[in-house]
Fold:
Amino acid sequence: MEKLFSVCLWLTHPDQENDDCMTGEDFATEGEARACIINLGGTFDMVYHSDCAFIELDGPNVHEVIERPGVAKRAKRQARLDYSLERSERAMQAGMAFGCDGYNDTMGF
Structure:
């Protein structure tokens, strides 16, 4: 059976002419594709794709982009990543100066 419908997970909105589709799966029917969207963890390993903010459903006579509630958009995630890298650097410096306790204190462990 030909698989005409696809569900793809994106970091940013797919209509922004970007190239950050992280994964996708093809389905024979629109019903199967919609069932996948309802239960993403049944098809995709959400440990690796939990930061994908958009779901795209595409097929004959259907093109929908769904924003996942509770998932930060890329710009916000980038700011958190920058902070995380800065914190890691500070922790490494503290670790070199004060040992494991200095590292752990800076990281909040």
